[in-house]
Amino acid sequence: MLCLRHCFRAIRAGQLHLYPCGPILLCSFILYAFLTKASNDVYLNETALRLSYGGITNWAHFTTPADVRAECTDGIPLRIAYFTRHTGTLWDWIAVAAHLHVPWTRVNPGLFIEYGINASAAARVWRDVGHVMCHMADILIFSDTIPDARPLLQGGCQTPIVLQVTNRFDYGVLPSDLLDYVALLSDVAQRPHVWWVSNNPYEEEYMVRRGVKLPPAERRMMLRPVGTCLLPDAPRPSGGGSARALSAAEAATRVALILPPYSRHLENTYIMPWLLRHGLTAHVQVYRQHYGGPAVLARHRGVITVPYQTSVMKMYEGLAAGAVFVIPSPELFGALVRKLDMHRMSFCCRELLRDHPDDWPQFMDWYHPDFVSAHVLYDNLKDLKRFLTDHTWSSQLVSEKRRIGTAAMADSRERTLDGFGRLLRAVSQQVCAATSPEQLRARGAVFRAERSLPLFTATSSSSSSSAAAASDDGVSPVRTVLAAGAEGPGRGGGGGIGGGRA
């Protein structure tokens, strides 16, 4: 075609007569007609299309995965749909995706799926929008609330799925539905296109305790949060309704205390009343639920916290930003959990300390060996009071802990980013191994409106268990444990803050 342009330009300019160009023009027109016919034969062969798609009868629910053969051949990253309700996990994924340069989109299941969706509701979602959810990307990641994946798991979606468990795999599932849900997850674990990622050490222990059969090691891993927070730069902290903003110097002299929104947390039931009773509030800056993020906490001389979960995004984000948490020592924490019921001290996982009385810190990132040395630990209220009032000593201790914490998070972040890179390469290879037209059509044809009933039913009977409430002997158990200090097995409590453990 370029030759034709040169010929026509030369003829118009009078530099070339038509006769020498005649054979060239004739051959060019013949070649153009041949290529056009070949192109039409390829793209407009309706007979071939009917043979390929003639077996499909339910077009309303039909869809097909994207043809990614070109991406696979050229090494172009595949598309990812990230399903999450939780802003913290979303921020974390944004950082991971940016590091790995992968194309992705976010879907908030909370906009159309109820918490702990049951089998019949999941079947309705699968029938109505399952084909959209299943094929909206080449890889699907469900984070934070794993029951949100139930419509696709139950319906038989063949797109590779990553279940990123961050807050118990059965969050929101009703007890009456739990056996069927566990049976579904156990079956899912055997499907080669479903991958499992936990973001803390406790998740796998919890799943095994609930009867879930985990997938083989090559399809599961633990990848902790990278600790990214995308809140806008916060103004200077003003505290819990204080009319005057604190200067940076003032913030550095005070210890932050975040009062959780629920009254059952120990910060509300005991620590704040204790501060008021002993006139220690001048050393503390009190915040409510919306405190401004980890950058605000990092300005302070420590952050008083009592863990209510085995891990929370606040810990990873705070350590990455340079915040230092002041928490009960493992001995004191264990004693508090054993002594206090849920009405006086909120903690998610009391069975962990019951079932693992000696090694429970291995499953709880607040006290895990990878992070515990970054925190300030206290064995009793005397230790905590010294930390609050001795500014010079505690400031030096916090400075050292801040260095340890940022280094620990840097190491953890590197492991997580490397792990996600390996995970997505493995899943992408799985996608690229099944990209023939026949395989794509077969995966698209699984959508049938009549496939709306639960596929898995548990046959075992439910077993009930109840935890005995702690008795109240008339003496404040919090005061008794905190004031006296806690004794670990074969050793006394009451060591200085940090001590050899920190």
TrEMBL record:
<feature type="region of interest" description="Disordered">
    <location>
        <begin position="480"/>
        <end position="502"/>
    </location>
</feature>
<feature type="compositionally biased region" description="Gly residues">
    <location>
        <begin position="487"/>
        <end position="502"/>
    </location>
</feature>
<keyword id="KW-1133">Transmembrane helix</keyword>
<keyword id="KW-0812">Transmembrane</keyword>
<feature type="transmembrane region" description="Helical">
    <location>
        <begin position="16"/>
        <end position="35"/>
    </location>
</feature>
<keyword id="KW-0472">Membrane</keyword>
<protein>
    <submittedName>
        <fullName>Uncharacterized protein</fullName>
    </submittedName>
</protein>
